[in-house]
Amino acid sequence: MTTDLRQPTRRAVASPAAASVTALHRDASEDRVLVDLVQRAAHGDEEAWRALVERYSALLWSVVRSHRLSDAQAADAVQATWLKLLEKIGTIKEPGRLAGWLRTTARRECLETLRRTGRERPSDPHAPEAVAAPTSDLVEGDPEACALRSERVDLVRAAVQALPEHSQRLLGLLVASPPLPYEEISARLGMPVGSIGPTRSRLLARLRTTLAAADLCDAA
User: Fold this and answer.
1) Distance, CA of 50 to CA of 170 (rounded, Å)
2) Given 9, 62, 131, 192, which residue has the most CB atoms within 10 angstroms?
3) What are the boundaries of each domain within the chain?
4) Is the pLDDT of residue 218 over 80?
5) How confident is the model at residue 13 (pLDDT cuts 50, 70, 90)?
6) Rounded to an integer, what is the distance from CA 206 to the centroid of its chain?
7) pTM over cut 0.85
8) Residues with Cβ < 8 Å from 124, sequence gap 6 or more?
9) Which residues contact 44 (CB under 8 A, 6 or more apart)?
């Protein structure tokens, strides 16, 4: 009987340090992709906007569903969250924190819906949204902060409702979830594809001007 004295072949096992380096590279790559998407979307890139919507739609729906809103209310909350991102995307300085911003914004939309309908928040005690935002962002315990936030939400809604019906429809389609291609928006509204991006920019600029004027009037 012959004994094989050769050393057994060892499997290559990645060290914890190597695994950490790989994870860091992966995170850095993800950050670069996200920064690129946000910057392109801010400049009207349709594909970048659709990529953001596809990336974060599941997150938003998980937040609104934890509040047990009706289907229509949940859809409105998701759409309102995307509309706010559409308005502010050009001012985002830390794209890496976008998920937290979206989660907090959706949660606030849900709380505002519950407040308007006179319902208490019936969230699942195990839902992650309870720790979705820093304490400084959770203002429902501060009546004055709640009133100010509610007033701001009302101003945004009023500014959007003051736009022509065609403009309101355009903004609604731009923040639809799942996202709609510009070709479909063009077909629904009867407007050239090439005019959608510039029109969106003008509408958002108009909303910012209206909201800024409202803030100045309130402060006077």
Assistant:
1) 15
2) 62
3) 23-120+128-219
4) no
5) low
6) 21
7) no
8) 66
9) 197, 198, 200, 201
